[in-house]
């Protein structure tokens, strides 16, 4: 290990507060620019600051890659997943943690949830804890900021280079706040200026590719291409180190092609290894996809239709928000969700929730983001139904809200969104509750069925964070709200794979009762497959 780098690390760990400034780095620092305000000067942390910035680091999940894994260049290019490292070094202060559907880091603080959707291989690495979040936070070099490349949280990748030369560097990462959009790269524990401060757009909350470094003159100057010079053919160690904590690192490419086009999406497939085996990709569970086939039709009988909310056959208008299924086996990982799951009390042990949930932010609900006053404009879940009887059907919904900013939604039918089915309001007391009332005038909501046969019922978001378990349409204007999950579900056609049998708590009749929520469909692996009938066979 470079002696100066070792002294920086040792002083930080042993003194727990004596901070060595990046002026000790081998490369001269640029003249004061916009970045000069970031690192804290030498000094001693108070006990409160030590508790915040130097918390206990829990161990990460076991490495996915075996020690014998050696990547290789083919035709001058190698593509590597960040989670396919073989060693992590200098991780006493900050550490790279695996994020996936099966891996949620235990390190705290961590201001953002697992954002695995769109990550290559279904996983990525994140530098934690994250205490440098916004510009006003205290930035401490050697702790939550790594101005000296290679000094904090280093991932190592063994790569067999078929030929020496200049390899241009492309890196895929994600920035979720103002201060987590830079990285450092090196080779064989040498950290050249050509790969120092890999620069990306900040606060994008989306995966992005970048192939440039920040100019030594400062962030406002034109950025320069990033590269590593490989001195000889053979095995070398490519290294990435944290520069700002909270950074999410997905994958990278090294190529001799100076004109290599910026990748799209996750980019090219990973290069086959020279030795060892690549870990299997981690399955991504899509909680916003249907878990029933399109031939499933819910049936009205005796003036009553009962539908499980998680059994939608289609979802549209999901660019900003979407309904996500939540159960013991399905946990959405798509963004902010301020409350814990409530599947234990939900009918069938599952429900849907509009996510991300940002409507209770200090700025309040934002139209077109966390609020939609127009039925059908955002997050529309649709259900195929069959009516045997005509008439006015009053809408009762079993829903849950944790506050006053997540307790309304809209209903519609056959692509129409009448005002008499809009702005359904339910209590926001943090428990499941039945409701049939308008948000403002408190009158009942209804849909008029003027033709027997097949129809499509829709529900759409009004406020994000809204949770829906099931809903009932009934011609009985004096319907009494159940005190439990309510009547049983009846199907006209199709089967409900992944739904197990259970007796209904009320109004038992021939039915298939929606009780489980997991099935393998459209290539997305959802666990726990069971099926059965409630009552007698329909």
Describe the structure.
The strands form five sheets. Strands 2, 4, 5, 7, 10, 13 and 15 form a seven-stranded antiparallel sheet that branches. Strands 16, 18, 21, 23, 24, 27 and 29 form a seven-stranded mixed sheet that branches. By secondary structure, the protein is mainly beta. The longest helix is centred in the first third of the chain and has 13 residues, at 3-15. Mean pLDDT is 83; it is low at 3-38 and 499-538. The chain has two domains: 3-255, Sandwich (Jelly Rolls); 297-493, Jelly Rolls, CATH 2.60.120.260. The chain contains two helices and 29 strands.
Features:
single chain; 538 residues; mainly beta; Jelly Rolls; 7-stranded mixed beta sheet; 2 helices; 29 strands; elongated; disordered N terminus; disordered C terminus
Q: What is the secondary structure topology, with strand pairs?
A:
Layout: H1 3-15, H2 47-53, E1 71-72, E2 77-81, E3 87-89, E4 95-100, E5 123-128, E6 154-161, E7 165-174, E8 182-187, E9 198-199, E10 207-210, E11 212-213, E12 224-225, E13 227-230, E14 234-242, E15 248-255, E16 297-299, E17 304-308, E18 314-316, E19 322-327, E20 350-355, E21 380-387, E22 391-400, E23 408-413, E24 424-425, E25 433-435, E26 446-449, E27 453-461, E28 467-474, E29 491-493
Parallel strand pairs: 1-6, 16-21
Antiparallel strand pairs: 2-15, 3-6, 4-5, 5-15, 6-14, 7-10, 7-13, 7-15, 8-9, 8-14, 11-12, 16-29, 17-28, 18-21, 19-20, 20-28, 21-27, 22-25, 22-26, 22-28, 23-24, 23-27
